[in-house]
Structure formats: C-alpha cells, structure tokens
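Thread: zinc ion complex, take 2
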Amino acid sequence: MVFGAIFGFWIGWKSTQQEILVILTFHGVTETPAKPWEIEFGKLKKYVQDLKRFGFEPLSPSQFEPWMKGLISGGRRFMVTFDDGLLSSAEAIKKLKAEEDLDSVFFIVTDFLGMPGYIDVKILQDLSKMGCWVGLHGKDHQSPVEILAKGNDLKIQLLEAQNYLQQILGKPVKWYAYPFGEFDEKVVQCIASAGITYGFSIAAERVTRTNNPLLIPRLMFLKNAEKEGEPVIEDYLPPAGLRNGILILMLAFFVLLWGLRNLHRFYFSWKNLAN
Ligand SMILES: [Zn+2]
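Output below.
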C-alpha cells in the first residue's frame, strides 16, 4: 500500500512536470471585436498572464529551433504568433514586449504592406529591431492549395515575397504560416523547395519534437470555439497534465494515509496477540 502510494506520488509528480510547448495564433486586436478571430488586448494580455501563472514560460522565437532540436527542454512553454500583418496586431506586439517582456512572431502578407489597416515597411523594420520575429504568410493571402490548383507557381511567389522581406529586414526569413491553415502534400513540398525551414499550420495538437518541421501546429484564438468542440487556450489553464497530476498526488496521499492506518492497526493487533 505504502509502495503503491509512493508510486502514485512519482506518477503524479511526473505528470505535473510534463513538457509542453503550445503556440498561439492571433489576428486583429481591437476593443470592439466584430469577428470571432478578433480579441481585446486586455483579454490577450490576461491569457499571457494566466499561462505564466500556471508555470508556462514564454519561448522567444529565437529559442524555437533550439527547442525543436532538444537543446532547450523541460517545463511548460508558449509562443505567441500573429498572422496577416495588421496594424492592430503590431500595437499588441509592442505592448506585449513592453508590458510582458514577450517577443512575438509576425507572419506578413507582402502585398498587404502599406494597405489601409496594415503595417508598412517602416513599422515592420521597427518591430524587427525590437525583437519581433518576422515570418512569411504568402504574397497575397490566397490559399496555397488553390494557387497550385489554378496552375500558378507557388514557389516563385514565395521566393519573391521572401526575397522582398529579407531585403527590407536584412536578415533571413525562413518561417512560413499557411494562409487559412491550408496545405496538402504538394504545398508542403513547394515551401520546402523555397527554403522554408519551419511551416506553421492551425491544428489542435501541441508541438512535439517529432513534428514535421513544415507542419508545426498552432492553436488559433477563435471566440466561443469551445462550443464547437474546438481546442481553446483555456484547455491549458491549467494544462491537463497538471490537473491530472494534482489529482493523482491527492489520491496517492489518501492511499498513503489509509496504508499507514492499516499498518498502525496491524501493529497493535500483532502487539495484542503477542501479549
Ligand atoms: Zn491569414
């Protein structure tokens, strides 16, 4: 019984220590969200603070590759990404840096740069200097599956957009987020041939080191997604491993108490017999 309890403690402890990396995806950040993928800054900041409260450390984008290679391991971590290159996302990225010391990833659609509601080249350069990691989100936000289906050259489009970003920023741009999260085998081959090292999709799973680097799952914020049975950030507040671990620890504690009580009883009945 006592050994069972010790085993329970071990299992419980192990599961509270489970390694997690979850990547979050946001779009517009506004005080008056009209679309399900828009979010108020206060709510976004609260997610970040709650994740930290449950033991999640922010993984800075420069640490992502070392994490994937196992050079950084253990613990719970999260990374924040924004898609499309909206002005309101840029404001949120700056505030997260100033208020939460968090470096975000910004996936840019190159044709949108300078359009109303979107950031321009100057803002992108400033964000990059500030520590924001810049990735590619296509030239014009068309679904890459559709681009190929229409017989257009996705690889050329990607290379042009990538070169443009690299020229503006003076550093390599090797990350790509699939517009609409859409991909198929041909698309993945295409982005690999354009020299993309990490491709980011939208999926329910969390990141593992066995993930295909060109299909890294991200959890996209969508209002009321839980009602559709979709994964939500709240699933990690607290994460299931921590929740289960604490339950197992409590159970192990009761088993230990029960075991000790039985031992105690056994000892006294043995003592009475001996007398
Ligand atoms: Zn997008």
